[in-house]
């Protein structure tokens, strides 16, 4: 995971704890990626997107084998271990996502507002 994939407000695992990304953390991650093995004291990694996490998003609900929020439908593909995101109005494929920060970024990009999540 690279700093350019993240935005302030994203959630990641930072030293094993769910943490909200701020500007200082983005700079740290950018430096750690640049220096590679020289900074090994604190680890950061993406949070795997699960149904449990998605259901903690404000407005998300489950119907049949999929999750929905606003005009988006998310369907898990177990064979590939990622989620398909579809536009329920036009029934078109939008993206595939695997991690929480990807979902938060996509939602922000498509709606122009942050998605509230209680983790």
Number of strands: 8
Oligomer: single chain
Strand line-up of the largest beta sheet: 4-5-6-7-8
Strand content: 25-35%
Q: What portion of residues is helical?
A: 10-25%
**Main pleated-sheet profile:** 5 strands, antiparallel
Given helix and strand content, the structural type is alpha+beta
Number of domains: 2
Distance between the termini: 20 Å
Q: How many distinct helices?
A: 3
Cα-atom radius of gyration: 15 Å
Protein described:
The structure is a single chain. By secondary structure, the protein is an alpha+beta fold. Helix content is 24%, strand content 29%. The protein has 3 helices and 8 strands. The protein has a 5-stranded antiparallel β-sheet, covered by helices on one side. The chain is elongated. The relative contact order is 0.19. The model has no long low-confidence stretch (mean pLDDT 88).
Secondary-structure blueprint:
Blueprint (H helix, E strand, L loop, with lengths): L10 E4 L2 E4 L2 H13 L8 E2 L5 H4 L6 E3 L2 E4 L2 E6 L4 E6 L4 E6 L2 H12 L8
Antiparallel strand pairs: 1-2, 1-3, 4-5, 5-6, 6-7, 7-8
Short account of what is shown:
The protein is α+β, with helices and mostly antiparallel strands and 119 residues long. The protein has 3 helices and 8 strands. The longest helix is centred in the first third of the chain and has 13 residues, at 23-35.
């Amino acid at each position: 995971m690279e700093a350019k994939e993240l935005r302030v407000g994203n959630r990641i695992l930072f030293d094993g704890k769910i943490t909200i990304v701020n500007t200082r953390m983005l700079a740290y991650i950018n430096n750690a990626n640049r220096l590679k093995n020289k900074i090994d004291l604190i680890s950061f990694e993406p949070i795997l997107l699960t149904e449990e996490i998605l259901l903690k998003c404000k407005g998300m609900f489950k119907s049949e084998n999929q999750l929905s929020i606003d005009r988006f439908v998310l369907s898990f593909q177990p064979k590939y271990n990622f989620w398909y995101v579809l536009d329920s109005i036009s029934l078109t494929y939008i993206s595939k996502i695997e991690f929480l920060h990807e979902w938060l970024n996509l939602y922000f990009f498509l709606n122009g507002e942050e998605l509230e999540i209680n983790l």
